[in-house]
Design goal:
Length: 334
């Protein structure tokens, strides 16, 4: 985060509460703030029962401005995608595979797609679609996980299909289908690539036509590959839990070569992701745990590891020189 003027330490009991909103619905989705508005997904009760909505709240007044139906309510805790805002539009994916592009000002639906019905998509396991769509200029990239559509690129304005990635050959690690990660952009070997963590491991595809360039599977597990990869130049760092671990690979236009590997006892990021700051990776370590950990990117060396004050996995954020960890039990730590 580029926010400044933040507290360097917190008083006992934590920072002062400025306001709270009760209108966000039920779910695991994060919030995104853009141009004075807050967007998220949530399951809300209606006259016809519970349904899933894209929700917009005014940041200044904390009043809900609009809700747009996304799909059916999801029984396992609700939606888990954080919407993406770009070019005056909001892109959001529901657990059942509903993809919505809506007007950021009014919430009016512009186009819709469905991961299974339109692309033959599948998840590697049963916790449903969780990715935040990647918007790259006029292109939206999502991960259906289908045999002929591992990743797809869509026209950001119309939803028209630009290309589909056939599932390439992977190693024996992991499971077929999409993972719970979000795609990121890399420029390596003179080729712009989209890098994604899917059920079988890491994959890089050509951003121009979706053609698979390379795969890497050692740090994949067969239950749930979750955290979004970290890209730094031609280096990619990725970690999963369930006894898998973490790997640093160097990518080119044709291959991914392993630089270093950490066992699951050294570092495994289950949920919550990681951040890269000045050559060091920070994230929570452990199965269903978020022990704050620092790893030197270039060497793969664990620099320090702490126990952590909260329970369960932890999401991490960096702002103005400090790290913020938010734990599953509600604890937020500076």
């Amino acid at each position: 985060s580029r926010e400044t003027g933040l507290l360097k330490s917190w008083p006992e009991g934590g920072p002062k509460l400025l306001w709270r909103v009760e209108a966000m619905g039920r779910g695991y989705s994060g919030v995104v703030v853009s141009q004075g508005r807050v967007y998220t997904l949530g399951d809300l009760r209606t006259q016809d029962g519970e349904r899933q909505f894209l929700i917009c709240v005014d940041l200044a007044t904390q009043k809900r401005l609009w809700t747009t139906p996304l799909g059916p309510a999801y029984g396992d805790g609700g939606p888990r995608c954080t919407p993406t805002v770009a070019g005056g539009r909001v892109y959001a994916m529901g657990p059942e595979g509903d993809l919505l592009c809506a007007d950021a000002r009014t919430g009016a639906a512009i186009w819709r797609k469905h991961m299974q019905r339109d692309f033959g998509g599948r998840m590697m396991s049963g916790w449903a679609y969780s990715e935040s769509p990647l918007v790259d200029g006029d292109v939206v990239v999502v991960t259906p996980g289908g045999r002929d559509s591992l990743l797809v690129a869509l026209n950001a304005r119309t939803g028209d299909i630009l290309w589909k990635t056939p599932t390439p050959a992977f190693g024996s690690q992991g499971s077929d289908g999409a993972g719970y990660s979000s795609a990121v952009i890399a420029n390596a070997g003179g080729v712009k690539q989209y890098v994604q963590l899917v059920g079988r491991g890491l994959v890089g595809v050509n951003a121009r036509d979706g053609r698979p360039l390379w795969t890497y599977s050692r740090m994949a597990n067969g239950t749930a590959n979750i955290s979004t990869p970290i890209v730094a130049g031609d280096l990619v760092f990725a970690s999963t839990a369930y006894g898998a671990g973490a790997a640093l690979v160097r990518i080119s236009a044709t291959e991914a070569k392993e630089v270093s590997f950490l066992s699951s006892s050294e570092f495994q990021n289950h949920h919550g992701g990681m951040v890269l700051v000045n050559g060091y990776i920070y994230g929570g370590h452990g199965q269903n745990a978020g022990h704050p950990t620092c790893i030197e990117l270039q060497s793969g060396r664990v620099v320090w590891k702490e126990r952590g004050p909260g329970g369960g996995s932890a999401a991490v954020l960096f702002a103005e020189g400090n790290l913020y960890f938010r734990y599953e039990d509600g604890t937020v730590a500076l």
